[in-house]
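Working notes for the structural subgroup meeting. M.R. asked for a predicted model of this chain before we commit to crystallization trials. I am recording the input and output together here so anyone reviewing the notebook later can reproduce the run.

Input as submitted:
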Amino acid sequence: MQPLLTLKALYHRGQESIGIYFSHNSAITHQIKIIKGAKWSRTNVCWYLPLTKSHYQELVRNTAHLAKIDTNALRQYLEQRKVRLPSPPSDKTTQKFTTNTQASRLAAAPLSTQNLQALNRFVEELKLKGYSSSTIRTYRGELLQLLQLLKQKPVNELTPDDLRRYMVYAMEKQGISENTAHSRLNALKFYFEQVLGQEKFFWQIPRPRKPQQLPKVLSERELERLFAAIRNLKHKALLFTAYSAGLRVSEVVHLRLADVDSGRMQLRIENAKGKKDRYVGLSILLLDVLRAYLLKTNPRPEFYLFEGAVPGAPYTSRSAQLIFHQARHGAGIQKKVSFHVLRHSFATHLLEKGIDIRYIKDLLGHFSIKTTERYLHVKKEELITIVNPLDALFAGKSWDCSGFIDET
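Returned structure, recorded in token form:
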């Protein structure tokens, strides 16, 4: 008898999610873990995914052969928003779903017709103004948090004092972080000022001070161990690319073959965060590594520099992150760092080698020099000759396909 997989609406960490509940099953767990965006919630004792049609469809594709999928609770919630999902494989057999969890779960409160219309108009305005899908998803989740508390009270009738009290409630009772508070205020500010056209009164609501967190950085010796722990040529090329150019994980996996300009020794980063294009330098060593990778990989990438199982489709950010964490564990690095530490390390090492911070700002694609100035607090005092940090890492060492880069 197949196990039962129950899907429920879940509001977690500032966004609507699909809560996935089932009795322990390693095969199902594996199929969920490989979905981009899948995370485990210790609070709710379940796996969860962003509440989008594409995530739902991938979840059904991955698990329909392993379990009977109960979507009744999820569909009931979506009816409030008038969103329809395709049906999973039909099954008339009902099974009782049991769980030992005692964790609290946030029930998705239905919205009034007026507030649902307000939410839809809010999303439409964000799209018309060209906000990114991630920002729209975040802002929508923040406004929805307020709308679910209001129940039948129209959001349009709230006053500045109401919003002030709401933010105090969110911080004291819901325990949101300073960063989440800023995000929520930005979403509410957009709704009341951009959608409703009300006067700018949000200056009356003080913003909490964000914690001044310094970027985490790996030393050059730690990076050597990290790269040495990778045996797969494609994986090594991917992490080399990220470090040598200070790229975000999304920028690495969306690099196209055409973005590698060996004539000018540049990489073109297109439509990055903030919808900005930029050029970064192409390391001499990286170019050799990429040429070896493209020569030996089979099948050869068709469009993107790093492609997954589907030809012509980019490698997923989650896969790239898994590669990094496997290398970190293999290198015995105990620091709790993510893929993004390669970007932090790139910036810090450039500062240590004497490169002007204004140049690093452009390489990283920062809007403000203040963002880049964080690295001034983590760089070492001694400054040396300016070279690409990847080339410096392996200076004086020879390289070929039989050398320190091995093919799987």
